Amino acid sequence: MINIKNFNKSFGKKVIHKDVSFYVREGECLGLVGGSGVGKSVILRSLIGLEKPDSGQIEIDGIEVHKLREEEMIPLRQKVAYVFQGGALFDSMTVQENLAYPLREHFKLMDSEIKKKIKDVLEEMGLSGNELNLPSQLSGGMQKRLGLARALMMSPKIILYDEPTAGLDPYNTRKIQEHILKLKKKGVTSILVTHDMPTALAVCDKMVYLHNGIVSSSVMTSELNNRPNDQIMKFIEGEVA
């Protein structure tokens, strides 16, 4: 479903990625891990066309994303949702208006259809009753869940999570984990960028560890306990950055 081949990216003289390659099968959740500043979010942004590789390939469902013009990105962005670290919510819009926005932008739906979809998603995310609230009136954990709820409005085939549990208390962290696992059961493919290794271990089928611009390790999560010297295990244990 997602295939990145020989991805190279620099900003000026700063080299971020050197021949990075990995893939994600349909329905899998891949954990993209590594220290701060290794370019994990750069890869997510590249998958939706917000960044372009200097060289290499980025494919989603067989489509070479890096070759698409801006107007050609619209159908792709309808099936790929991005859950931004800060939520990227519209502060001046109510919860209901935030959720309705992507539907009104991309589909011609009746108001009754939009309201029903909003009601269903809010119930699923444990946010019922907040339709008329502004994001600032919600807790940090609720805002994170609202960001995920908005991503779900388009019924995406792929979700890109950028630090969805950063700064959350254990309760809201567990809620986000539960929602990611529910979406996996529905066949949604995903990439999780995170420093929250307990969450990565709980939801990811496979992990890719980025270090010094390359993929230093790629391993199925179920095999980690049998590989104590793997770079990912050392990262989890705090032995490497």
Record field, number of beta strands = 10
* Structural class designation: alpha/beta
Tell me the CATH topology.
Rossmann fold
Anisotropy-based shape: globular
Q: Name the CATH superfamily classification.
A: P-loop containing nucleotide triphosphate hydrolases
The pLDDT mean sits at: 92
The CATH architecture is 3-Layer(aba) Sandwich
Radius of gyration: 18 Å
Biggest beta sheet summary: 6 strands, mixed
Helices, by number, come to 8
Reading off the top of the CATH hierarchy, the class is best stated as Alpha Beta
The total domain count is 1
Sequence of strands across the biggest β-sheet: 6-7-8-3-9-10
Walkthrough of the structure:
The chain has a single domain, classed as Rossmann fold. 34% of the residues lie in helices and 25% in strands. The protein has eight helices and ten strands. It has a six-stranded mixed beta sheet with strand order 6-7-8-3-9-10, with helices on both faces. It is globular.
Salient structural properties:
Rossmann fold; four-stranded antiparallel sheet; 8 helices; 34% helix; globular
Topology:
Layout: E1 2-11, E2 14-24, E3 29-33, H1 40-47, E4 55-60, E5 63-64, H2 73-79, E6 80-83, H3 95-106, H4 111-124, H5 140-152, E7 158-162, H6 170-185, E8 189-193, H7 197-203, E9 206-211, E10 214-220, H8 231-236
Parallel strand pairs: 3-8, 3-9, 6-7, 7-8
Antiparallel strand pairs: 1-2, 1-4, 4-5, 9-10
Structure at a glance:
By secondary structure, the chain is α/β, with parallel strands linked by helices. Helices cover 34% and strands 25% of the residues. It has one domain: 3-Layer(aba) Sandwich (Rossmann fold), CATH 3.40.50.300.
